[in-house]
């Protein structure tokens, strides 16, 4: 399935590739990916939602088709700042001007965020004032402690792992990405997810993003989750081996009025493991807010 991000936004952390699907006048939905993934994981869900919504997808700086470079700030703090910039660029940040120069409110978007995209969305809302109409969190990185033993090992020894022979690096990344799925990924999908992390720019970028992301970025906002005053849905793969389902229950309990939906047979990468079930859960949640 082709997936082309045909537009570029020059953010404070580098060039961001993004795309828009659906009717530009429909209610906006923004999809956030996590690590070590890209917007490609959302391709099926995005196309399904585009029948009813204006769907915006993007690759975070350092990921997928977006810019990768030495010295780049790709931390969760930087990604939240970039996301806030993007919302303004898309006309979704509020306070826009109409043709006569008068203030005109822009529509608050629906936000659907996976993995550390959850932290990015929560930081943008709580620290940068980004307004959302509703929020869906899918196997989100949001609560301490987080990071698998493999993730921590790679981050603590990034300079060493950057020196791996390319073939060994590719094999390691391939096994790591594959472990996010409970039933297993199709080879072509796995190839597409691994490809951005290979080559002279991709290999160091893989370890850079892990080294820069530590628990303090969720610690800074975790105590404020009770401040959320918007509809929240928490979706979780029942067989998530990266973030145990107990974290889904814990997160839903901390977010006022949040509902928890478990997706049976799915691991951490729910979009690949159970796309129909996830799309149905998200569509039902969004339509409730439309009513």
UniProtKB/TrEMBL annotation:
It comes from Streptomyces buecherae. Transmembrane segments: none annotated. PANTHER family: HYDROLASE ALPHA/BETA FOLD FAMILY, PIMELOYL-[ACYL-CARRIER PROTEIN] METHYL ESTER ESTERASE. SUPFAM superfamilies: alpha/beta-Hydrolases (SSF53474). One of its GO terms (molecular function) is hydrolase activity. Residues 29-280 form the AB hydrolase-1 domain. This is Alpha/beta fold hydrolase. Keywords: Hydrolase. It comes from the Bacteria.
């Amino acid at each position: 399935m082709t997936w082309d991000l045909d537009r570029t936004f020059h953010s404070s952390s580098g060039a961001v590739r993004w795309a828009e699907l659906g009717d530009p006048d429909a209610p906006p939905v923004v999809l956030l990916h996590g690590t070590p993934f890209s917007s490609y994981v959302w391709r099926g869900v995005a196309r399904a939602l585009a029948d009813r919504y204006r769907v915006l997808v993007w690759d975070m700086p350092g990921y997928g088709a977006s810019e990768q470079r030495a010295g780049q700030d790709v931390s969760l703090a930087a990604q939240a700042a970039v996301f806030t910039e993007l919302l303004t660029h898309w006309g979704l940040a509020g306070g826009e001007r109409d043709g006569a120069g008068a203030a005109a409110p822009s529509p608050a978007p629906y936000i659907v965020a996976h993995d550390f995209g959850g932290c990015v969305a929560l930081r943008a809302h709580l620290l940068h004032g980004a307004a959302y109409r509703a929020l869906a969190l899918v196997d989100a990185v949001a609560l301490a402690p987080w990071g698998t033993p493999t993730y921590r090992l790679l981050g603590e020894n990034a300079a060493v792992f950057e020196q791996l022979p390319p073939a060994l690096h590719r094999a390691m990344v391939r096994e790591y990405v594959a472990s996010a799925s409970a039933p297993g990924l199709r080879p072509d999908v796995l190839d597409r997810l691994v490809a951005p992390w290979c080559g002279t720019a991709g290999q160091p970028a893989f370890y850079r993003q892990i080294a820069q992301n530590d628990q303090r970025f969720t610690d800074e906002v975790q105590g404020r989750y009770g401040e959320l005053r918007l509809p929240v849905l928490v979706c979780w793969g029942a067989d998530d081996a990266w973030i145990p389902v107990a974290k889904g229950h814990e997160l839903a309990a901390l977010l006022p009025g949040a509902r928890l939906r478990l997706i049976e047979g799915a691991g951490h990468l729910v979009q690949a493991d159970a796309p129909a079930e996830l799309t149905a859960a998200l569509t039902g949640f969004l339509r409730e807010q439309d009513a």
